[in-house]
Amino acid sequence: MPSDRTSGDRTPIVSGNWKMNNNHFEAIQCVQKLAYLLQKDDFDAVEVTIHPPFTDLRSMQTLIDADQLRLKLGAQNCHPDDKGAFTGEISPVFLAKLGVQYVIVGHSERRESFGENDEFVARKVAAVQKHGMTPILCVGETLAERESGLTLDKVKVQVRSALEKRTSEQVKSMVIAYEPIWAIGTGRNASPEDAQEVIAAIREEVASVVSRPAAQAIRLQYGGSVKAGTIADIMRQPDIDGVLVGGASLDPTEFARIVQYRRHAF
Ligand code: PGA
Q1: pTM score over 0.90
Q2: Burial category of 187 from C-beta neighbours within 10 Å (exposed 0-12, middle 13-18, buried 19 and up)
Q3: Alpha carbon of 92 to ligand 1 centroid (Å)
């Protein structure tokens, strides 16, 4: 049964995942342009997070603080441990110290290219929350899984393993992004109705693994080739509370238009 976003307290959340793009100089330009394009009304209606590469975070924190921007700072990943012999990894402690509020965990690019499994992703979810930040947990199926009718089985297992040790209160504040792997960076997206169906099933899974109140409160995003031209139909779906945007978030004009979907849509 789809829930009604307008009656709940689920503020829409639009997140820009820059992936491995924009050095710290380019990041400053991008955010300054975005801040110029977004108005107070936009930030009142939609929470906006940006997820630059690690090497940009300090510059972004300084810019956001100095100009009192209402953009929220996010990271793209972290290690589950606080410290130790993990060459090349970044601790969630460091991210919290830099004013990071959101951390993407279990992105399919990390699961597929860097071998991150469900158990490792669950540890990251716990680590991010331990340090007062909000995880954006990514789940999604491959094209082969979709074509074999395994989409719901796959995402339910991913949701269950990441959440089963979390409390209801912890899950209420989380974000889950449903990102079909075949739609990421390909220009193909799930139809808004297909995305709604999977996202409604994710909400039901949260209810069965955690609690009904957690399922009603958790915010669920769609991700995969979201553009300014497609956002409005996606956000009309009752269970979709936001979007995780990759490629289109690199262009501040396009990303601002995505954040401003209400102006064009309703
Ligand atoms: P895309 O990426 O918008 O470029 O498809 C989405 C993501 O991977 O977060």
Answers
A1: yes
A2: exposed
A3: 23
Which pLDDT value is given to residue 187?
A: 86
Ligand 1 atom nearest the C-alpha of 108 is: 8
Using CA positions, which residue lies closest to atom 6 of ligand 1? 246
Q: What confidence score (pLDDT) does residue 189 get? A: 84
Nearest CA to ligand 1 atom 7: 246
Task: List the residue whose alpha carbon is closest to atom 1 of ligand 1.
Answer: 246
pLDDT lower than 70: segments of the chain: 1-8, 265-266
- DSSP symbols for 78-147: --SSSSSS-TT---HHHHHHTT--EEEES-HHHHHHS---HHHHHHHHHHHHHTT-EEEEEE---HHHHH
- Per-residue pLDDT of 100-149, as tens digits, reads 999 999 999 999 999 999 999 999 999 999 999 999 999 999 999 999 99
Using the atom order of ligand 1, give the atom closest to the CA of residue 224. 5
3-state secondary structure of 46: coil
Q: Could you give the residue numbers annotated as active site?
A: 107, 179
pLDDT at 4: 47
Q: From residue 66, how far is each of 63, 125, 170, 256 by CA, in Å?
A: 5, 30, 31, 21
Structural domains of the chain in order of their starting residue, each with its CATH number: 10-265 (3.20.20.70)
- The Å distance, Cα 222 to ligand 1 centre, comes to 10
